[in-house]
Amino acid sequence: MNANEREEVIQVTDLRRVYGGGFEAVRGITLSVARGELFALLGTNGAGKTSTMELLEGLAPPTGGRVRILGHDPYEERAAVRPRIGVMLQEGGFPSELTVTETVRMWAGCTTGARPTGEALELVGLAHRAGVRVKQLSGGEKRRLDLALALLGRPEILFLDEPTTGLDAEGRMRTWELVRELRAEGTTVLLTTHYLEEAEELADRLAILHEGRIAVSGTPAEVTAAQPSRMSFELPEGYFLGDLPPLRELGVRDHETTGRTVRLRTHELQRTATALLLWAERTHVELRSLDIRSASLEEAFLHIAREARQDTGRTPHDGPRDDRAASTAAGKEAAA
Ligand SMILES: Nc1ncnc2c1ncn2[C@@H]1O[C@H](COP(=O)(O)OP(=O)(O)OP(=O)(O)O)[C@@H](O)[C@H]1O
């Protein structure tokens, strides 16, 4: 293979998952992840992140579509895929009477070419808890044990389902550092998380899921670029909105006022901010409580969540406006 060529180790095409009761949790997801890349799956609660991860991990067969992990079907060709991947599920579940060391040894017994137990515990910062029974570990320590087990077989692809949930700030930083090191060594990582700063810190690319579909995807910079920046300030005493330069002409997309506070959203932050600050200087007034912030991943996420809330307000008969698959789901709902 050409050195510049992207080796796609995760390929997902039009993936679908329908649960027993007929609920469509994954509704046509297409994505690919290159070797050595860190891809983050974000989404509102119930968006379908875990349902998607489980299909990629080969824990269940898809209802429709295609998954290839390292060129294999992870469900049909489990024996070929399993030794090359590491999986950290959302909820581990170990025999609670075993000690940390015994748990790792037990797991190592089922893993080809396992790391030494001490090394695995060292990696996740659990070496000092080696002799402690699993039931005595804190929630965060159990997450770290989960991670140690996922790393035991030196996987080529690491699936991490909410790896830092329940960790304190130091534990989270430590996990981020470890994930960065693994990536630097060439490990491909697929991560789900509710911490947007985690995705912003770690991800090369990401997708935000909503109701089983990818609502937006790209690099963190691409995803945030589509969102407006925000600016807010207090109107000086004796001044009104109409005294400001015409906001539309400054690139302002929309604005609202509460009392004397003006909040606006703009795609041209520099132009808007410069014009308003120059106006304040010319007018010899101070824009108090001035706050200017560029768009963030949080903004993109909240935008999607807001749209989701508005959608929830619709009746099934209204149906989503422009999506055939979603109309089918709404139709099912209406029929139920
Ligand atoms: N076994 C199941 N049977 C029926 N529905 C299920 C099942 N498992 C999950 N679901 C539903 O599928 C949808 C997606 O769930 P999933 O756990 O994949 O979402 P998620 O994005 O991982 O959510 P969270 O962020 O809350 O962990 C939810 O509406 C959930 O209730």
Please provide a written account of the structure.
There is one protein chain. This protein has 336 residues and is of the alpha/beta class. It has two domains: 8-224, P-loop containing nucleotide triphosphate hydrolases (Rossmann fold), CATH 3.40.50; 228-293, YebC, transcriptional regulation domain (Alpha-Beta Plaits). Helices cover 34% and strands 25% of the residues. It has eleven helices and 13 strands. It has helices spanning 49-56, 78-81, 100-109, 117-123, 139-151, 169-184, 196-202, 220-225, 269-283, 297-312, 324-335; strands at 8-18, 24-34, 38-43, 64-69, 85-88, 157-161, 188-192, 205-210, 213-218, 229-234, 252-258, 261-266, 288-293. A six-stranded mixed beta sheet has the order 5-6-7-3-8-9, sandwiched between helices. Helix 3 (100-109) packs across helix 4. The longest helix is centred in the middle third of the chain and has 16 residues, at 169-184. The radius of gyration is 24 Å and the shape is elongated. Mean pLDDT is 87; it is low at 314-336. The structure holds adenosine-5'-triphosphate. The site of adenosine-5'-triphosphate (ATP) has 13 residues, from helix 1.
